[in-house]
């Protein structure tokens, strides 16, 4: 079933038709239909059935303009419940359509449907949508393209054309069976068998050369690539052979242009990238490879597509391949990420909050849970776990949003702490006393209008690595990062309060820290979690609840009538 798009004209006499969308000077309303069903796919010489939207992998792209609204009717014809999250869309006062399973809604059951109301506000650029139930986002995901308002344009010369590129992971096995097995044994989930660009693993993967995704370009033209990292568990380096690229936006907010030969992008992040076809007409590989500075198992393969010039020329016998950093090259990753700054122009200003009223310090750790008789599949016969402030999140059977809105008892606790239970040398010799977390469904309540600073402190507990942390309901300013233990006196002196990037997903460095700030002006229940799916499954999650403000305009909207039933 394809997507349908309609528009509601709100007080505008002239029309503009672009990309089959009808736009107006106020906001428009678009309608999409998502049919979730099993579909057969063949990759790496392996055929399997996958849970998809409209039989596509990746799924359909949603096209809107800044400030629009989209209604997406999701029909579940699959075998198990699922929800959809609109990653990076703030959903003002509307957590009911945010999507994380048993946080803001219960799953859409097989044979049922639910219509999401996706409210866009100040986002502009590229975001994405994905399933938010177990590991189903491996196959259920797609891009969101948010164009400027009518009468506005990009803060850079208009590109000749645009192309969505989605990085993902292919598993030869059934993804649900893989995570169910890992959950049952307590061991590490099996890594993916390949990465993919727009659904194709490409060279040098088995049975993949002839099916590589191809992006045709004309010599001398500049193109806008909308890159999404929909991968499950690996951060990725990305580049194009013999072509520099210029990054102009991240997470649907413009940045000062960065010209580079490669980027590093974490799961959950999006980047808008300009590339000019200025090399001799030929074929050139677009490639991505993992950045993974850890001892955990990971997918060691690469993925590629082909930048293919139009015209007449001799096809090369050997296609140039980009030189990407080594898999553990932390310096290369930092060299890119530390250059990212908000555009901070008159047209696209930033409002970095200066006076913090709420400070939360969160340790981010991989842990273990003791199993009787060392009977589990993790280290020392234990169960692998993960935590924030040494609390491993337990997903409830009734969603937290309904419990909060209706004051239902015994669903969650309101005492997620501002600090870890005790202070230790977070990035040094941590000993075993921090290895075992407590379990709980805990949320942190925040007053409407508070200026919040959260410091994520990576730890050396368990298996230290980078953690891409994502907060629903907000974009926030990444005001600082560093290695070692955060120090309130000295670390804050390194903050960038002038033009920090405004994002929704940030990488907490291995054995380091990251500090974010935002103003809590979006009332609702908002999930916060690591976007490495292994860690989120193990409990590296919590919930922030922003209380209602003093008026109807600053309060959570009433729930829709057709919310999925919890059972």
Automatic annotation (TrEMBL):
Start and end of every Plastocyanin-like domain?
38-148, 163-311, 425-548
Q: Where in the cell is it found?
A: Secreted, Extracellular space, Apoplast
Q: Which UniProt keywords apply?
A: Apoplast, Copper, Glycoprotein, Lignin degradation, Metal-binding, Oxidoreductase, Repeat, Secreted
Note whether Aminoacyl-tRNA synthetase occurs among the keywords: no
Q: Name one GO biological process term.
A: lignin catabolic process
Could you say which EC number(s) this protein's record lists? 1.10.3.2
Catalysed reactions, as listed in the record: 4 hydroquinone + O2 = 4 benzosemiquinone + 2 H2O
Q: Cite the InterPro entries for this sequence.
A: Cu-oxidase-like_N, Cu-oxidase_2nd, Cu-oxidase_C, Cu-oxidase_fam, Cu_oxidase_CS, Cu_oxidase_Cu_BS, Cupredoxin, CuRO_1_LCC
Q: Which family does it belong to?
A: Belongs to the multicopper oxidase family.
Tell me the function of this protein: Lignin degradation and detoxification of lignin-derived products.
Name it: Laccase
For this protein's source organism, the top of the classification is: Eukaryota, Viridiplantae, Streptophyta, Embryophyta, Tracheophyta
């Amino acid at each position: 079933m394809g997507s349908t798009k309609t528009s509601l004209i709100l007080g505008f006499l002239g029309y503009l038709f672009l990309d089959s969308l009808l736009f107006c000077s106020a906001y428009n309303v678009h309608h999409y239909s998502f049919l979730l069903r099993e579909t057969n796919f063949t990759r790496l010489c392996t055929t399997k059935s996958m849970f998809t939207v409209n039989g596509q992998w990746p799924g359909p792209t949603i096209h809107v303009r800044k400030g629009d609204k989209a209604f997406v009717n999701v029909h579940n014809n699959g075998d198990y419940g699922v929800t959809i999250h609109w990653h990076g869309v703030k959903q003002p006062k509307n957590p009911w359509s945010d999507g994380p399973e048993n946080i803001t809604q219960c799953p859409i059951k097989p044979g049922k449907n639910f219509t999401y109301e996706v409210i866009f506000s100040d986002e502009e650029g590229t975001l994405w949508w994905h399933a938010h139930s177990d590991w189903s986002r491996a196959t259920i995901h797609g891009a969101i393209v948010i164009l400027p308002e009518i009468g506005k344009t990009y803060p850079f010369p208009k590109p000749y054309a645009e192309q969505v590129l989605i990085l993902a992971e292919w598993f030869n096995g059934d993804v649900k069976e893989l995570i169910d097995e890992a959950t049952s044994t307590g061991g590490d989930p099996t890594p993916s068998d390949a990465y993919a660009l727009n659904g194709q693993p490409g060279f040098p993967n088995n049975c993949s050369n002839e099916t590589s995704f191809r992006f045709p370009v004309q010599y001398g033209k500049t193109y806008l690539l909308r890159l999404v990292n929909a991968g499950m568990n690996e951060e990725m380096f990305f580049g194009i052979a013999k072509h520099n690229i210029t990054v102009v936006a991240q997470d649907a907010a413009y940045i000062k242009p960065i010209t580079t030969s490669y980027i590093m992008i974490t799961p959950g992040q999006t980047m808008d990238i300009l590339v000019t076809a200025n090399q001799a007409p030929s074929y050139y590989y677009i490639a991505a490879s993992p950045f993974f500075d850890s001892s955990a198992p990971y997918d060691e393969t690469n993925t590629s597509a082909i930048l293919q010039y139009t015209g007449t020329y001799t096809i090369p016998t050997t296609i140039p391949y980009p030189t990407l950093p080594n898999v553990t090259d932390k310096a290369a990753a930092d060299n890119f990420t530390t250059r990212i700054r908000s555009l901070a122009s008159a047209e696209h200003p930033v409002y970095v909050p200066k006076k913090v009223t709420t400070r939360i310090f969160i340790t981010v750790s991989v842990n273990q849970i003791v199993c009787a008789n060392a009977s589990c599949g993790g280290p020392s016969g234990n169960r692998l776990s993960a935590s924030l402030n040494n609390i491993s999140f337990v997903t409830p059977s009734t969603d937290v949003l309904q419990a909060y809105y209706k004051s239902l008892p015994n669903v969650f606790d309101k005492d997620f702490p501002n600090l870890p239970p005790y202070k230790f040398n977070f990035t040094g010799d941590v000993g075993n006393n921090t290895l075992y977390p407590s379990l709980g469904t805990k949320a942190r309540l925040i007053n409407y209008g508070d200026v919040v600073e959260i410091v994520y402190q990576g730890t050396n507990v368990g298996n230290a690595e980078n953690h891409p942390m994502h907060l629903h309901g907000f974009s926030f300013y990444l005001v600082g990062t560093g290695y070692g233990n955060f120090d309130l006196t000295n670390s804050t002196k390194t903050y960038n309060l002038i033009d920090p990037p405004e994002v929704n997903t940030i990488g907490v460095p291995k054995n380091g820290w990251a500090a974010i700030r935002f103003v809590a002006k979006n009332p609702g229940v908002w999930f916060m979690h690591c976007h490495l799916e292994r860690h989120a499954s193990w409990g590296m999650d919590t919930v922030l609840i922003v209380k209602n403000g003093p008026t109807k305009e600053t309060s959570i909207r009433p729930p829709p009538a057709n919310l999925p039933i919890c059972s």
